[in-house]
Amino acid sequence: MARSDRLLRLLQAMRVMAPPITAEKLAAATGVSLRALYRDIDSLRAAGARIEGERGYGYRLTEDF
Fold first, then answer.
1. Which residues partner with 51 through β-bridges?
2. Which of 40, 50, 56, 61 is least surrounded by CB atoms within 10 angstroms?
3. String of b and e for 21-38 (b: at least 16 CB within 10 Å)?
4. Looking at 1-65, which runs of residues are DSSP E strands?
């Protein structure tokens, strides 16, 4: 799967899942390892996505409407 497709799948999963979303749930939903998930989240943040995360809590995607 192309990286851009994987990033889009990650964003879509974060949009439909109820926050906070654990890294394990996101990795399972997108079919990647935890290490790949962390890299993808860093890439999305660098591209401007507002993804908040806290160890032991999970991730939350903040979207402006």
1. 61
2. 56
3. beeeebbebbebeeeebe
4. 50-54, 58-62
